[in-house]
Amino acid sequence: MSKKQLQESALAGVALEGILEKKGRGVVQLDLRYITDRPADIFLIAEAESGVQVRAIADSAADRVWEFLQIRPLGVEGKEHGQWVLIDFGEVVVHVFQSEYRRFYDLEDLWNDAIRTEHAS
Q1: Please, what is the end-to-end C-alpha distance for the chain in angstroms?
Q2: pTM tops 0.85
Q3: Helices (H), 70-112
């Protein structure tokens, strides 16, 4: 594994801890590194029942990454509505959905050729 892959995996692991700390459900990691024209190398996807919980999970993931790795997101989208929050760390992107929006956008099917790892929540 390259140094870049190790850094990406560490960032994803720390963000995952933040997601699980706030009871994110259905957590899936998609490794997109072997896909041509990918938007990122790793997607972390989780869901929650309410906008309040979506925002809390997203904040926890970003806070945890800052606390342990001193990395701030390049951008955060969707916090104002709390239906789907996207946290862009560059090569690692965290998606936190309300359940109905996750089913609607179905990123796991869209990127079904990615290497998928499910995490117990």
Answers
A1: 27
A2: yes
A3: 99-105, 107-110
The span from the CA of 54 to the CA of 4, in Å, is 29
3 state SS of 45: strand
Picking from 30, 26, 21, 6, the residue whose alpha carbon sits closest to that of residue 119 is: 26
Residue in 91, 89, 93 with CA at minimum distance from that of residue 107: 93
Strand duo 42-48 + 75-77: pairing: unpaired
- Under a CB-based contact definition with an 8 Å cutoff, are residues 92 and 49 in contact? no
State how far the Cα of 50 lies from the Cα of 72, in Å rounded to an integer. 25
Task: Spell out the domain ranges in the chain.
Answer: 3-119
Q: Judge whether 96 and 54 are in contact, CB under 8 Å.
A: yes
| Per-residue pLDDT tens digits for 104-118 | 999 999 999 999 999
**CATH top-level class for 3-119?**
alpha beta
